[in-house]
Amino acid sequence: MERYVDGFVIPLPMDKVDDYKRIADNAGVIWKEHGALEYWECLGDDLDVKDMA
Fold it and tell me: What is the DSSP letter of 37?
């Protein structure tokens, strides 16, 4: 079986990060039950990039 990576970028308000982490952790468990080998959750801040809308 070939390996592949799925990635998502989801903007959300900082006051919703804890809610998102809870949901994402549950999703990670389900994905692993269905064959995912790894699950990573990343959070960035101060991501304002010049000339990006």
Answer: S
CA pair distance 20, 14, nearest whole angstrom: 10
* 20 touches 12 (CB < 8 A): yes
Tracing tokens 């692993």 back to the chain, one arrives at 32
Among left, alpha and beta (phi > 0; psi -120 to 50; other), residue 46 is left
What's the pLDDT tens digit per position in 34-53? 988 888 888 887 777 777 65
State the Cα–Cα distance between residues 28 and 34, nearest whole angstrom.
10
Q: Are 17 and 37 in contact (CB under 8 A)?
A: no
Model pTM score: 0.64
